[in-house]
């Protein structure tokens, strides 16, 4: 029995996108189960039947179930040590885990004001000082990594840290966040990554609209 990744709507579900891109970019085979979010009690129960958290994503590997994006990436890195989800160098690996954890726990203003909605027409909007500070911090993280490890991905080759920031790439693109230099190059690199493109194309093919995520 292989891996099964349970996810939500590709148009909106940032947390689902992260492990999906990580696994796909690393060449780790898995089956996908998509359960639409906020459609009623039946789909909620379908998620609860997989994970007691009642949230997606969740990875099922035989008798083992792992939920939460970062936990899934960590599990996959242990399960498939040759996949390169984290850098082999200890210091770089610690750095990658640190910025991934920062993505996991921070940037609340950017998340709130620039929700991922891949169908949304590209266009800027007024942002709070807090969101602008989040953007500045993310740009600093990316610039530091790209300078330190040489690009084109955050730690040279694509890995778990890139997957953790993949939804931010959509946010920067969708809300026309000004970028230049290494950050602009990184955005372009991520957008042509086959795993990123596959997710995006599937998201654009979705027709379900969740009103609470339609900020404009």
Overall morphology: globular
Backbone CA Rg: 17 Å
Order of strands in the sheet with the most strands? Answer: 2-1-3-4
Number of strand segments: 4
Biggest sheet descriptor: 4 strands, mixed
Which structural class matches the secondary elements? alpha+beta
Overall tally of structural domains: 2
Quaternary assembly: single chain
CATH class categorisation of the largest domain: Mainly Alpha
Which percent bin holds the helix content? Answer: 40-55%
What's the helix-strand series? Answer: EHEHEEHHHHHHH
Number of helices: 9
Task: Characterise the protein shown here.
- This protein has helices at residues 14-25, 41-48, 69-79, 90-105, 108-113, 129-149, 160-174, 181-192, 194-205; strands at residues 3-7, 31-34, 58-61, 64-67.
- With 216 residues, the chain is of the alpha+beta class.
- The longest helix has 21 residues, at 129-149.
- The mean pLDDT is 96.
Give a brief outline of the structure.
This protein has 216 residues and is of the alpha+beta class. It has helices at 14-25, 41-48, 69-79, 90-105, 108-113, 129-149, 160-174, 181-192, 194-205, and strands at 3-7, 31-34, 58-61, 64-67.
